[in-house]
Structures
1.
Amino acid sequence: MSVPIPDSLVSRASRVTREYHVEGKRIFPNAYLAPMSGVTDISFRRLISRLSGGRTGLMVSEFVTVEELTKLNPRICRQMAFAPEERPFTVQIYGAEPDRMAWGAAMVEESGADFVEINCGCPAPKIVRKGGGSGLLRDLGNLKAIIANVKKSVRIPVTVKVRVGWAEDQINLLETQKVVEGEGASALVIHGRTRQQGYKGLANWDLIALAKSQAKIPVVGNGDILRVEDVVDKLERYGVDGVAVGRGAMHNPWIFNQVADLYEGKTPQEPTLMEHGQLFRQYLELLREEMDQEGRLLGKLKQMAARVLKGLPNSKGGRTDVLRSMTLNAFFDNLDTLLGSISEYRGRILHDVRELNGKDANEIEFGKDYRN
Ligand SMILES: Cc1cc2nc3c(=O)[nH]c(=O)nc-3n(C[C@H](O)[C@H](O)[C@H](O)COP(=O)(O)O)c2cc1C
């Protein structure tokens, strides 16, 4: 039995901003899947698209290294690939050399993407050390040169994703915003944490709102969104043009479907237990189009299971069995046993956002390139 979320959300949602435009291209709904390296590859994104009945506003690639892209590394070039239903589509690039970033951006444009995004948020030491990712927040002169060069090399709009600063005592969001706008970028995405925070603590939405209040271009806020209520809450309270949902979408991949329903005036539904079972079968089908090794397929399913199954009541033991499965058959047997064992289901129990980073080290094993 599906369980409705309180109705007043529908009326609240009817009063918030539900779309924005990037150089004339409409982004609707304005809540989209944030890029997550090691997670939001084409299979994951297509799953999200299917779950929401094709009603996604924007899709973004995992971050792509221009260093390797411009060497035509086939694995990296494939990261730019997207399915037609993913449009409008952004390819996000990272690097620290203005010329190479411009070259990489030109390749992005050639790939047919709608937008190219510059990553200024990645906290990984090996990237920051070379001046890329959030390292750019400490060298706004280079960020300026990168945006200027990228702008010169492409006709598609250029967007920029940043953190609020390097550390608590080095918050420089407004200076960064000035550079981003001054160089003609078309949208600013703000993850409300510092580089020093990594993924811990909470995002600072007050800073995001401050940037929005002064912005000349659309501002997308990001951090700690898990439930459809959080989407409405952030739009209401902080006045941003849109929101991006990262780890919350791994716990709750139905969130974009719920937002799309809400924006159509429908009460969003919690997924049923049966839909939980279907989720993994659908994901496997999409993964098989990209890979065939059982170990890799199993790894991907477990990555999702570690988060999604947390939302089920009394599921700890069964979840451990699923995560210890050695074969695909065992995975689905254990999953079905777990789902069958839940007698009282009144919707998902989504954990406090403070736990989005996971308590166990194994839960942030995905996205190795992106970790701090
Ligand atoms: C495993 C992982 C990989 C990530 N990879 C990227 C990336 O490639 N590009 C990017 O801009 N942000 C990346 N991020 C950051 C997210 O897009 C997002 O800004 C961050 O997780 C905060 O949002 P959340 O609280 O909704 O998760 C990554 C985050 C995680 C957890």
Note: The chain has 16 helices and ten strands.
2.
Amino acid sequence: MNLRHILWPDVDTGLWNDWRWQYKNRLKGAEGLFKLSTLLQKDLSHLSHVIKTYRWASTPYYISLIQDKNLLQDPIGRQIIPSPHEIQKQSYPQLSLDPLKERLYSPVPGLIHRYKDRVVLLASGICASYCRHCNRKRTWKKPEHLSLTKHALNKVKAYLDANPEIREVIISGGDPLLLPFKSIKRVLSVMRSIPTIEVIRIGTRVPVVLPMRITDRLCRLLHKNRPIWINTHFNHPREVTKEASGAIEKIQLAGIPVSNQTVLLKGINDNHDVLKSLFCKLQSIMVRPYYLFQCDQVCGTLHFWVPLSKGIEIMESMWGDTGGMCIPNFVADLPEGYGKARLLPSQILDMEDGKEAIFFTYDKKIVKIHL
Ligand code: SF4
């Protein structure tokens, strides 16, 4: 099935590769759902009440990566097509829309200060494509808004000036690379004007869902504001397309290292072969697999959760099966704001300092080593 030819048969390559066209022609809301349903001759009307609670939009490019007409069976479709499960009464009554307590750790609007030396700046309220597993679904209840106001940015700057122990700002959202060029420039220049901010990290899914957004102009801006790190969000090997790889290469040629955060998602990537293929593909385009996240316990995402033990089993099976550069840290962001916890089990079974340690090897042998 080639969805590009079914849904956008008359769009020429020039337009298709123009990020503004892609953004403007996102399928979104009830109208987009209707168009999808008509062209695919599938009844999607049962999803209209889901998108009243959690908004829906995605780019033609990303939608065109879906290969299975049964949209929720496809690893790309499952990430973006709303599911009735999102609004089903949850079996865990304690589920929250903000289990990480981000609002509690927000000293000024738009800023999250949980760890001592770094903060998250929520610079944008929009995404090119809304991932159904997103842990900030709470923000989707408001209308899409572009960026922090100048006034809010000034408050953020005042807070960062007053807290010199903060050395790193993680610019996130929504997707900060969807902001208008001058807003991105403003945010970066404000961050660069604070002498204690050493490093800027940008969290973006644009290389995955709208790779055309990575323009030469944007790369020049990023280059000028180094040191910058980009952290992106590939979840499945089919996302590592020619277009996505091209976008990543442009960023890298601008002198910006790229790493990746994957979320472990039921029915999408919860098995050894898919994850191994994803991490190896990322390594081959020089993107470091940085984190594999246990899906956060956010209301409306229960259908994506994978048992902890299964995640550990998959990661254990990868150790020794592929190189360490292809194996990310497996972590959970603990509810109630307790921060990240590493989940990969230790391979040390017992040890006595200066004498010996007993290890469980990658190929399941138990060995005693004098260290
Ligand atoms: S791109 Fe990031 S912020 Fe946007 S919906 Fe996906 S996970 Fe959430």
Note: The CA atoms of residues 202 and 366 lie 42 Å apart.
